[in-house]
Design brief:
The termini are far apart. β4 and β5 form a beta hairpin. Strands 4-5-1-2-3-6 form a 6-stranded antiparallel sheet, with no helix packed on it. By secondary structure, it is an all-beta fold. Helices cover 0% and strands 33% of the residues.
Length: 85
């Protein structure tokens, strides 16, 4: 795992869903962008989240990483933190 620096946040994306809540199966060609994930690593300038938080982030601000299931965003691209469900 790479250690995040500055205001960067590494997020492990949630898996793609293959069906809707109502049970309708989605075709693989209809892939929605994933914008929810679990924080894997944070830089020293990040103060709004911690490792293990489930977050929502802006889809167009993400940067890819060597692992296709992990993206990198800046702290200001985070939209919210999910509270315990």
């Amino acid at each position: 795992m790479v250690k995040a620096i500055m205001d960067r946040v590494f997020i492990r994306l949630e898996p793609n869903t293959t069906a809707t809540v109502g049970g309708i199966f989605l075709p693989e060609t209809q892939e929605n962008p994933r914008t929810i994930g679990i924080v894997e690593s944070i830089g020293p300038d990040v103060h709004c989240v911690k490792v293990g938080d489930k977050v929502l982030f802006h889809v167009f601000d993400e940067l890819p990483s060597p692992d296709k299931d992990i993206v990198v965003v800046r702290q200001n691209s985070l939209l919210g933190v999910f509270e315990d469900e």
